[in-house]
Amino acid sequence: xxxxxxxxxxxxxxxxxxxxxxxxxxxxxxxxxxxxxxxxxxxxxxxxxxxxxxxxxxxxxxxxxxxxxxxxxxxxxxxxxxxxxxxxxxxxxxxxxxxxxxxxxxxxxxxxxxxxxxxxxxxxxxxxxxxxxxxxxxxxxxxxxxxxxxxxxxxxxxxxxxxxxxxxxxxxxxxxxxxxxxxxxxxxxxxxxxxxxxxxxxxxxxxxxxxxxxxxxxxxxxxxxxxxxxxxxxxxxxxxxxxxxxxxxxxxxxxxxxxxxxxxxxxxxxxxxxxxxxxxxxxxxxx
Length: 287
Hints:
The protein is an alpha+beta fold. It has helices at about 65-75, 100-115, 120-130, 135-140, 180, 190-200, 205-215, 220-225, 230-240, 260-270; strands at about 1-20, 25-45, 50-55, 80-90, 145-150, 150-155, 165-170, 215, 245, 255-260, 275-280. The strands form two sheets. Strands 1, 2, 3, 4, 5, 6 and 8 form a seven-stranded mixed beta sheet that branches.
């Protein structure tokens, strides 16, 4: 049994305030993209969970979100089943695309089927919230406003680019530790986020045009000075004629929209020497 793990971008991301518990309240518009890893699994009757990869990973198995998701679902459901899990990893680490969280979400969906648990998406989202802030959204994917640390979700009608448009996502030869992004990030209060959200909601069928024209990422201000390769990538996208160019999440990936697939492909070719990962794709409308 196989499950696709589409990654995400943030079409809007603002840091609203720092909370008393040390976390930050965010406002973001999540969007899944048609690019991601694949999780496969076979059932085991002895209750063991094993995990192997297409390429060796440089961290211990117990810290892998796929392994953690499988163990947590096993505990929550009380199942006696186990699984042999195989992760075909394509998405880069430290890229702001939610690759690891998407893998965890896919594992929850996959094992829910494999073990015949019949948990509803809401239950999987609740379990996912214990694994990471992006996981609940990635259980269902599509398009959603997220608040709090990312766990308060409002799903909206899936957004999609116009027929001709294509998205280019490129990760520069750098990765951004989350603590770097949060250090010095401006806390902008709720106004910008609430305005964006309200206008997006009231735009109806034009929500995608509004979102693409008014994209924002507050982390660019804290990331660019310490990670000039990310800013350079954004400038290259501008030079190559992209629109709606933003860093995704807390970095390091940058995305932009091109008028045609051919233009996006030509830009990707030019950016190859500056990239450790890139994909020309469209939005993924969710499960």
